[in-house]
Design goal:
Layout (H helix, E strand, L loop, with lengths): L3 H8 L6 H6 L3 E6 L9 E6 L2 E7 L5 E4 L14 E3 L2 E3 L6 E2 L5 E3 L17 E7 L2 E5 L12 H4 L3 E9 L3 H6 L6 H17 L2 H14 L3 E9 L2 E8 L7 H4 L2 E4 L3 E4 L2 E9 L2 E10 L13 E2 L15 H10 L17 H18 L33 H4 L15 E8 L9
Parallel strand pairs: 11-18
Antiparallel strand pairs: 1-10, 2-3, 3-4, 4-9, 5-6, 6-7, 7-8, 9-10, 11-17, 12-13, 12-19, 13-14, 14-15, 15-16, 16-17
Amino acid sequence: MLTTEQNEKLTKVGPGTPMGELMRRYWHPIAASSELNEENPTKEIRLLGEDLVLFRSTAGKVGCIEPSCPHRKANLSYGVPEPEGIRCAYHGWLFDTDGNCVDQPSEPAGSRFKEKVHLKAYKAEELGGIIFAYMGPEPAPLLPRWDVLVWEGHREMAKIELPCNWLQCQENSLDPSHFQWLHRYFGGYMMNRLKGPEERDAWNSGTGPKGGDHKKIGFDFTNYGVIKRRLVGDETEDSEFWRIGHPVLFPNILRVSNQLQCRVPIDDTNTLHLTMNFRPYHEGEEPQAEVPCALPPLYDENGRYRADGVLPQDQLAWVIQGPIMDRSTESLGVTDVGLIMYRRLLVQQMDIVLDGGDPMNVLRDPKKNKNLYIPNESEEGDQTWGSRKQRRFEKGLSTGSTGKYSVIGRQRAEASGHVPLPK
């Protein structure tokens, strides 16, 4: 278990907090590109405990600014987009995407007052149909070009706001044994009550093998985070679930099959959970004009948390731990070795930031940021991926010359209670 102070250090994300400062070293996905359009060119958001406004200028550039105009504090989500930026609805002051005031129509001709007025503004970029924001110090790192965001193919995203702290979501990815009970046992119980025979049978046949008794779990530190491994039933270490494993990208992303899952801290007690799914185009399929974004409900028709699928069941488990899980009263077992490992990694990376360094997965070399391919346990059996040539992966930070992930020093934690610290 952790002390109350240790728990707060890992969960508080506001300005000036240790975790908040670590999180501000990364680009975070905050909206779908399709959400900013001619009908809705602005969007109010909250990220890392700060209220902000996203907007798209009529020139197509995306900005991320503080919500209140510095003149008379009118909310800029009601501003009018123009080629240079966004114009306040109240008195017409115009601000560019860097927060500079570039026009004050009520001031005298020749006035330089606008040069003294500035909005807090954060960098915003688009990639793969997602708008990302960076709230940290300059110089800003490169926006990571994760494989599913840059491969040529069809993408679909979904996002949902969850009333819980981000770490509850991310720690689920360091907990292999939950599949056996949350998905096979509880999930089977719920799906057998909710669904018809055909769907029930499909669920039970799919979760049964993967949700079998876990006879071995293990974790390795990598240069992008942690690789999680497990052996279930009759599987051996030749299985892709052990040999390749399940990648967790530091600090708050899960890479599984053809999907990214991003656990974005809105504030201390709310998380934006964003998923991006990829598949190659079918033969003759027209390229996408826009990446669609679904908004799945959190609750069912009875006002209860949904449990009709793997991801809804995961989200249910995260939320029912409370707004911020009290880790000072938890009782960890031997299968929780991955959680302990990841918490220590978070503390280590917070200390690196405190000392003025770059934490892991902060990218600054464009040559290493072309196509960050991450091998994972599901790709060999997933025929939608096509051949390796079709994937067109390149060398990068997350790939070695053979296309395999780099394991740092082969440091391994298995379900024995021993957890090595990263060097």
